[in-house]
Write a structure and sequence with these properties.
This protein is mainly beta and 85 residues long. The protein has one domain. The chain is built from one helix and four strands; from the N terminus they run ββαββ. The chain has a four-stranded antiparallel beta sheet. Strand 1 and strand 2 form a beta hairpin.
């Protein structure tokens, strides 16, 4: 894991949080199943993919027969949050 920038100030109250990662955030989730997973209208992955698209993010899945299934989520990332007093 490599973080290029992380700043937390008064963390418990979330007065200021900034996370800047020039190449974005990539999350890989894998299982030890038998593979063959698919995107389905009633499944939750299409909803996650739709939500990620709002942030120019992507979701992809590789699930060869015999496994494993690997979900890859990529999101461009410059986050800033400031809580109200």
């Amino acid at each position: 894991m490599h973080l290029s920038s992380l700043e937390l100030t008064d963390f418990r109250c979330y007065r200021s949080v900034e996370l800047a990662l020039p190449d974005g955030v990539t999350v890989l989730v894998g299982d030890n199943g038998v593979g063959g997973a698919q995107f389905t209208p009633e499944g939750g992955l299409l909803g996650i993919e739709r939500r990620l698209a709002a942030f120019d993010g992507t979701l992809s899945m590789a699930s060869p027969l015999g496994g494993p299934t690997i979900i890859t989520i990529k999101v461009p990332c410059i986050l800033r949050a400031t809580a109200s007093a």
